[in-house]
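Collaborator request log, item 7. Partner lab (contact: R.S.) asked for a structural prediction of 8-amino-3,8-dideoxy-alpha-D-manno-octulosonate transaminase to inform their binding assays.
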Amino acid sequence: MYRFGKEESDAAARVLESRQLFRYLPDAREADTFEGALATRLGVPHAVATSSGTAAMISGLAALGVGPGDEVVVPAYGFVASVLAPLAVGAVPVVCDIDESLTMDPADLRRKITPRTRAVLPVHVHGNASDLDAILAVAREHDLLVLEDACQAIGGTYRGRALGTIGDAGAFSFNQHKILTAGEGGALVTPSTDVYERGFMAHDGSANFSRHAFAQPMRAGLAFRMTEVAAAVLNVQLGRLDGILADLRALRSRVAEAVESAAVLTPVPQHDPDGSCGTNLGYVFADAVTAQRFQAAADGRNIDAFFGNEYGHSFREWTIVHEGRGGHHPLANPLRDTEWRQDADACARSEDILSRTVLLRYNFDVTDAEIDKIHQRLAKEFG
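Returned to partner:
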């Protein structure tokens, strides 16, 4: 949570007092308003407000027609939702290596493509763009669909275009730890009317009885709707986005200047530095021992120094894939055939990179004195 205050509280209270908490009630308009405002902000014609980023990815894959027998290539670094979403639609997540940018390695993506591959799910992790030019070139060559996981990247750009709007569809998250938040929530965006209609149906099995009219026949869906309370909060949050991003980028520059003036460091490379959301700084080291020294010296109050293979973002932590537990029932488990399982060592290159990479996550409460203290510790350790 970056910026949150009385306006959000008032918006939530207004909806609660109206008793119009469900988006299909006669006077409920918050979810509709948010979808329109988000689509306008991102420059796409269609947005679907969902209950979470995971729900947005599941709805997106369903809308793209991904299902049983299909494979979806995902990177070895990102939140576990990137593998949960393919499993939820009956597809197999095939994990490919990352490179030192911590995003999908297009060369390994190419190696992981098989006749079963249907889609690619690049993750714009920590608000930094994947190598979309290279990924889209591979996808076009093999006639693959692209769903961008932009859950951590609202407001980020790649070559001037909003992340999440460049592939066939994109997913965003608005949970407690994201740039914009309502505690929980998500959104699916797409330039395609057909994908939008199918995504809306996938996220809402009761859309058959809603005020929405679709050209396509209704199909079964789930219940991933956003509440009016969450949408009201997000309508306020969306108005704060530019200010949040500006403050994050300014703070990133302050922290970078402090740590990089204290030690000779190699920043994690980025595919579009100007388009980064600025939520983290990353540094890659020649070996894990040096990375551990840096992490110990850089960790402080209001600045969290952590390794890339922490917090459930590393393939090694995704035991459901290693152990073939991809569903609640054997017939609903896409990983029931052992040929589709990947053991914990399947992405050794990614694990090596993550063991040598330290990320700095900061919040708006950090003071100049705290930043200076980290500078001094790093200068003492590496000077």
